[in-house]
Amino acid sequence: MARSASPVDATAGLALVTRLRQFIDLTPAEIASLQSLSRPLRRAQPHEDLITHGHASSTAVLMHQGWAIRHRALEDGRRQVLDFVVPGDFCDPSVFVTPVAGFSLTTITCCTWTPVAGSALLDLIAGSPRIGAMLWWLEAQEESLLRDHLFAIGRMNARERLAGLICELWTRMKNVELDIADGFEWPVNQEVIADATGLSVVHVNRTLRRLEHEGIIRRSGRIYHIRNPERLRQIAHAAKAGIGPTHLDPEIAARLRRSH
After folding, report:
1. Contact 103, 70 (CB under 8 A)
2. pLDDT tens digits, one per residue of 169-208
3. DSSP H or E run through 44
């Protein structure tokens, strides 16, 4: 059961603010609105369901700290991890038009998060069209990631899939300033990676060791060090696949800047 956090937490909303500030200047009022959206805070332990597939859902999830997975599973336990949810992610902001959850969202570490009601989202968008455009952009990023994952599983080999996933997650952690020097912390076991890439655990282990042997990555516990970023991006076909959807169209960005 998720628990309430302290009613006042200086970190609330900061990951989302940090992410958005990489691409557009936020006004003090917008920062205050985003932090207000980040209340109340909840804390969850690993392996807690924040959203359950097929159940009624009236809230989106704004992640502040920790990692979770969005996934679907069959009755026999076979599971597909659709994507990873990290700090700064806004999971399912279209909740006000999709009242039944199409996936499960389960924590894999201790998490701090906020349930955001669809009505609160509508009020925020009505009061700040710029924030509405930013949320739309976050949704477009999410859709781009899902397309990349589908393409990778359908057409890429194991080495390309893992390189792409590592490249993507490293980029996303950099966007919220949670990367570690030349890499990032990836707090998952190889079973979760296998479920995300459509590979067996044995194949994941073999492929990660190959990437290490080639001098592309180095693992130290849960830390993944990127030793050859350019080669990693080449293997992942990052330039063509759009891995790391971090770009805001310059014309749209300029219009948003003029509108505040």
Report:
1. yes
2. 999 999 888 878 799 999 999 999 999 999 999 999 999 9
3. strand 42-44
Overall size of the chain counted in residues: 260
Contact between 51 and 104 under an 8 Å Cβ cutoff? The reply is: yes
CA angle centred on 173, ends 256 and 80, rounded to 5°: 105
pTM (two decimals): 0.87
CB 137 within 8 A of CB 131: no
Contacts of 34 (CB under 8 A, 6+ apart): 13, 16, 17, 20, 26, 131
Position 258: which residue type? Answer: R
The tokens 């194949």 sit on which residue? Answer: 203
Rounded CA-CA distance 235/210 in Å is: 13
Count CB atoms within 10 A of the CB of residue 127: 11
Report the alpha-carbon distance of residue 112 to residue 249 in Å, rounded. 31
Kindly list the domain boundaries of the chain, sorted by start residue.
Answer: 3-258
Which residue bears the tokens 């906020």?
114
Q: Alpha helices, DSSP H only, in the chain?
A: 14-21, 28-37, 118-127, 129-155, 158-175, 190-197, 201-213, 229-236, 238-241, 250-258
CATH 3.30.230.10 fits 3-258, yes or no: no
Is residue 183 within 8 Å of 170, Cβ to Cβ? yes
Beta bridge partners of 105: 51, 70
Lay out the sheet containing 90-91: strands in order across: 3-4, 42-44, 111-117, 59-65, 90-91
Higher local confidence (pLDDT), 208 or 247 = 208
Let me know if 85 is exposed, middle or buried by CB neighbors in 10 A (0-12, 13-18, 19+). Answer: buried
